[in-house]
Every structure is written in C-alpha cells, then in structure tokens.
C-alpha cells in the first residue's frame, strides 16, 4: 500500500493536508473514499482509521483520501464545512494530475463526527461524481435535544468544569490534537449540555447545519452502521435515517461500544467492513 501526503488548503498559518492511500495498480481503481475522522469535532486526526481497514479497502480497489479539517471551538462549523468543500474541489481538480486516477468517482466516509460531516456535505455540497455516503455511528441533526442536554452516560465520569475545559482551547486554528490531550473538552461539553456551543455561533445556527427529513430523502445511496449499545450517539438516529434515505443498507451490531470498529480483536468490525466493500461493489456496478 502506498501513502502520499498533499496540502489542499491553508487557514491562516495552518496547512490543511490529506493522506492518499492506494496501491500501484491505479488504473484498476474502482473509486476513492474521502474520509473524515471522528472526535466530536473538537479532537482527532485524519489518519485514525486502523491500518488493517485501510489495507482491506485498498486491496479491494478503493483508494482512501483522509482529510484534515479545522477543529472546533477554535473554528466554527461554517469554517469546517467550507474547508471540506475545498478538499472535495481539490480532489475533483487533481484526481488525474496529482493522484493518477482514471476517474473521479468518490464516496464520502466518516465515523462518528466524521459521519456527521459526510451527511452534511452529501446534502449541502453534492456533486455528480459522488456515488454514495458512508456513516459509521454518525448523526445528522444538531437540533436533536439529546445533544443539548447533560448526558447521563458522561455524567458518570468525574466532572470537568467549563473553566477547566476552556483552558484546553488554543488561540489559533488547529487540525489535529489527540484524544488524550483534549477528550476532556468534549466530556465537559456533554456533561453540561453545552457541546454545541463549541460548534455554532448562535443557537439558531443548529438547524442551518442539520439535515431535515426532506434532506435525507434527497441523499445519494448510503451505507450506515451503528451499535445498539452506543453510549455516545443514540442508535435511534441511524435507525431513523435508514427509514428515510431512499437507497440504503443499514447494518446494526449488538451491544458494543460507540466506536465498535476500534477493537481489532472483535470480528464484528471486520464483518462490517466486508459488508461495506460488498455494498461499494454493488453501487459501482450499477
């Protein structure tokens, strides 16, 4: 598997980059997955997908382009969205010259908060070259009251006071920070019900960055997966989306944690990725 790095944009002094995973047989490529990482939009890094899954996708003809985006609360959702639009444009403008690909067919793929971003761009910035949407335990509606209320799950942990959380905020835009360094910021936001204040400038913006039922009905083909035991993003969100998106495959796993594919010893993760590849093949052949 080959890895290449490209810069697609710059925000102030921050370079926004992407990693391209491929094999040497680019002429045989079926499509490219544009990947957005998770982390509540406040932490994480673009190359967080376990390498075994990257290799599996590449071996089956699907290149991966993992993409930086500026994190909140240093940047709000409007800036995050516009940055990912620029990343999409970069791919469409450079798939032949920089990446050596025969075609620009792509899927948007995200996990958790990255799944949310995949939903958002699929609705607000859909292109003819986009063949589908992949959401692993993602969400699409910031007006969901569960995101604005103190979380009973996260309130089982030691409280992180808002002032303590604010000390973790940088003075300029950033695009990657580890879970160990900044999970407390997300934890505090969920404990006190103010997480969305990191993302939007005013409460009425929550609907601007959400998908309605009509928006879901206009999405491209989708592959959704979620665990019934998800303690962070309620499984009902994906169950509902699966009833409203016209062309959809929904795979639910039982009683596993939120990011169930992180545990490489659990065969459910591999099973879901194999199901994903089967779905990708079906979409590409249509």
TrEMBL record:
It holds the Pfam family Abhydrolase_3. InterPro entries: AB_hydrolase_3, AB_hydrolase_fold, GDXG_lipolytic_enzyme. It comes from the Bacteria. Residues 33-166 form the Alpha/beta hydrolase fold-3 domain. Keywords: Hydrolase. One of its GO terms (molecular function) is hydrolase activity. PANTHER family: AB HYDROLASE SUPERFAMILY PROTEIN C4A8.06C, ALPHA_BETA HYDROLASE FOLD-3 DOMAIN-CONTAINING PROTEIN. This is Alpha/beta hydrolase. It comes from Enterococcus wangshanyuanii.
